[in-house]
Amino acid sequence: MADEKKPKARTPISLAGTFISSAFSASVAEVCTIPLDTAKVRLQLQGKALAGEVNVVPKYRGMVGTIATIAREEGTMSLWRGIVPGLHRQILFGGLRIGLYEPVKNLYIGPNHVGDAPLHKKIAAGLTTGALAIAVASPTDLVKVRLQAEGKLPPGVPRRYSGAMNAYSTIAKQEGVTKLWTGLGPNVARNAIINAAELASYDQVKQTLLKLPGFSDNVVTHLLSGLGAGFIAVCVGSPVDVVKSRMMGSSSTAYKGTVDCFVQTLKNDGLMAFYKGFLPNFARIGSWNVVMFLTLEQTKKLFTKEVEA
Predict the structure, then answer these.
(1) If we measure between CA atoms, which residue out of 90, 72, 171, 199 comes closest to residue 137?
(2) 187/179 Cα distance (integer angstroms)
(3) Global pTM?
(4) pLDDT in tens, 281-301
(5) Residue 76 contacts by C-beta under 8 Å, 6 or more apart in sequence?
(6) Which pLDDT does position 1 carry in this prediction?
(7) What ranges cover the Solcar repeats (predicted)?
(8) Which of 38, 66, 124, 183 sits at a 20 to 30 Å CA gap from 80?
(9) Main-chain dihedrals φ then ψ at residue 11, nearest 5 degrees
């Protein structure tokens, strides 16, 4: 009788390996999807610019139309404006929020827990790592939004910033170092909520799928779990995302704070303004999650070894 093949297991991944694979995967996803993010930011900021205006035709219409307009007027590479601070952000924020999720979740469930982690513990871990990570990486988010917000300028009019590093230094010199953390409140809220929605839902959907007949820990399961995570994250996080983009898109004192921005947006633009750019946001976050989780699942294997179960 032929020997049965023994199932394979993998050695635990180190914290350093988790951080590196998380930062790398988040960066790959950022490069692939930032044109969609640029379109999302332009659509959200357009609502603020047109507030109170009558009979003004919006410049940007829909995700595809916005991308086409930017490419036609400013050049295709303008769709990747903000990629440098975007990568800064993903190395810091992505590495920390994703890399710390499993250790923090294990801390919350305790060493004596048996079985699957409860959903509320997963959500708590996502909220914690999202808030901690963005508190560190918030300046990169601000610079990214500022660079993305600038459209085509009239001839002879210089851009506010020549690049990412110039933006960091200019904001610090002209507005003060603390202004690099402008919009920290909504940014922490937004990223904690979206991080919890993404990581906890990916974890939960993957766990559920693996219990169904015909599913295994493969690319199809990772893809479906990533799409589910992206959809839930957008539904939950869109209102906070709009407030964050509007506060960060201007260096003026247009808003007194998070609550004032929320109230002004609701009063001037209506409730649906909080879901302005929903489709590009879902396309962006859904595709971002798919690319990130597919890359992450494969990259983590480079830091582990197969052993006999």
Answers:
(1) 90
(2) 13
(3) 0.78
(4) 788 788 999 999 999 999 999
(5) none
(6) 43
(7) 13-107, 117-208, 217-302
(8) 183
(9) -65, 155
Lookup result for tokens 């939004």: 145
d(C-alpha 185, C-alpha 6), whole Å: 51
CA distance 254 to 161: 21
- Residue in the block written with tokens 């633009």: 269
Task: Please list, residue by residue across 65-102, b when 16 or more beta carbons sit within 10 angstroms of its beta carbon and e when fewer do.
Answer: ebbebbeeeeeeebbbbbbbbbbbbbbbbbbbbbbbbb
Backbone angles phi, psi at 157, to 5 degrees: -90, 115
Sign for the pseudo-dihedral over CA of 202, 93, 243, 196 = positive
The string over 195-230, giving b where at least 16 C-beta atoms fall within 10 Å of a residue's C-beta and e elsewhere, is bbbbbbbbbbbbeebeeeeeeeeeeebbeebbbbbb
- Gap between the Cα atoms of 6 and 9, Å rounded: 10
Residue 221 corresponds to which tokens in the numbers above?
Answer: 């399961």
